[in-house]
């Protein structure tokens, strides 16, 4: 269920602006990898290029190779929708479909895949909600609107929606930045459980969070505004936070910069 | 979450309470300087001098504005009531004089010495032509709106949107003339073709003549309501939150699937409102239909034979030579049209209201 992600020389543009340059990085299956760095350093851009969501924006494009277990997702004959089904994404702000019930939200991805059978959908909905630690809170009101839940619950609903289609890799773009500390904790616990099944890559501005949840950490940075973001250091989380080999990383994690 | 409404309500009242305090000092001193005859107490002038707070003004812009808005609101009700009374007062004598059944009689001769007129055929024609027009216009309008909002390059979308809006500015009499003199020819040819090959279907049956038919009227109507529905639904589609569109795409949706999952459900109340506005225009459309329909009295589902009539078109056609009873009869038909429109609007509201739980949380 979990796959290795390999990026080599990934460069991404917004129109003429080069947002990230020559990112090389390998993410092992069933690990949590944190992407940290100052604002505008291209962490989110890199994350969005892993499931080809970057190119959704007008004028945005990606160069380089990104392989999932050896298959380049930027090959010409690759179906974009298949890539996105394989690599799920959780966004910064909880974004459940406002017109759908909790249940409909969870099974939305399955319905897109053409699953019609009620029994399969029911089972998937329950399993995903259980995996997202949300089942006990919502099992009595699956028909209610998903947007009626609290922010933390909505975000777990979005996670349930993402894992319902059984992706190989789950990308999380600052999933806790709009949440209170208790909901944040709930999501962090969830990540621990999910890494048994999925490869998780998370962008976060919260360094304690990176230190708590991730196995490996990648530090991105830019020289100055307008320059493309680069990968400065990528190592075991423990090493990055205790004994980084790069001066810039040390400055950033000790709060002297960014 | 539940605490938010009361809190914002407090903030609202706080704002109102604070506002006069803010407004007073500057305005007060200016007024005192230029006009010694002031309604306020002399102590009110000592602002900032440690004196008491100025008294509330007995009459100010605040109060005047409130009275003005109240008057405007009341005027609407008064006008509506006056119109209703006038219409009913004019309609009732004509209805009394009617020697035929107003609901079922197929014909309209209220000017005879023994007036006979019935609304059934007109109401039928009104509903049929409007429904047909919507049936044609809605899919096309939604298609155009989706193309403009989600497929076309931004610049092209804006330009095309502007053109569509221009279509709404064409006067209906122009549409009527165009329909009667030009558009009728292709429609007639098409009707003959339909009659030849699909004549076994009753709606395409008959032996002619073809042309100035319900189909022509409905097609012209469809073109007329198209811009309203298009530009309103385009606005609604453009408002779909990007977050929801991205959520659908990230689940592996194609663009059409994304539209079905995120855009259309989100825009549903807006689409209904747009369609209802279009229907309102179609039901009330007068001159274009008076010019394009065959003007006959009879209930028939045949779409291609000359014929058809609507309440509004009949009023336009018959008002000129109507006597007192005739005018009363037309006014009665107007009341029926009003009722039909009202029912349509209430139904639309009910549809939107039924889903409010979902649409409100969407906002």
Automatic annotation (TrEMBL), chain A:
Protein name per Swiss-Prot or TrEMBL: Phosphate ABC transporter ATP-binding protein
The organism's taxonomic lineage, starting at the top: Bacteria, Bacillati, Actinomycetota, Actinomycetes, Micromonosporales
Ranges for domain ABC transporter: 5-247
GO MF term set: ATP binding; ATP hydrolysis activity; phosphate transmembrane transporter activity
Keywords (A to Z) from UniProt: ATP-binding, Nucleotide-binding, Translocase, Transport
Superkingdom of origin: Bacteria
Pfam families (UniProt xref): ABC_tran
InterPro entries: AAA+_ATPase (IPR003593), ABC_transporter-like_ATP-bd (IPR003439), ABC_transporter-like_CS (IPR017871), P-loop_NTPase (IPR027417), PstB-like (IPR005670)
GO biological process, one term: phosphate ion transmembrane transport
Any single Gene Ontology cellular-component annotation: membrane
PROSITE patterns associated with the record: ABC_TRANSPORTER_1, ABC_TRANSPORTER_2
From TrEMBL, chain B:
GO cellular component: plasma membrane
Regions crossing the membrane: 67-89, 117-148, 160-178, 214-232, 286-304, 329-348
Keyword Membrane among UniProt keywords: yes
GO function terms (MF aspect): phosphate transmembrane transporter activity
Alphabetically ordered keywords of this record: Cell membrane, Membrane, Phosphate transport, Transmembrane, Transmembrane helix, Transport
GO biological process: phosphate ion transport
Domain of life: Bacteria
CDD domains hit by this protein: TM_PBP2 (cd06261)
Record-annotated ABC transmembrane type-1 domain positions: 123-348
Region (Disordered): 1-51
Main location: membrane
Subcellular location: Cell membrane
UniProt cross-references to SUPFAM superfamilies, sorted A to Z: MetI-like (SSF161098)
Compositional bias ranges of the Gly residues kind: 42-51
UniProt membrane topology term: Multi-pass membrane protein
Family: Belongs to the binding-protein-dependent transport system permease family. CysTW subfamily.
Protein purpose: Part of the binding-protein-dependent transport system for phosphate; probably responsible for the translocation of the substrate across the membrane.
Protein name listed in UniProt: Phosphate transport system permease protein
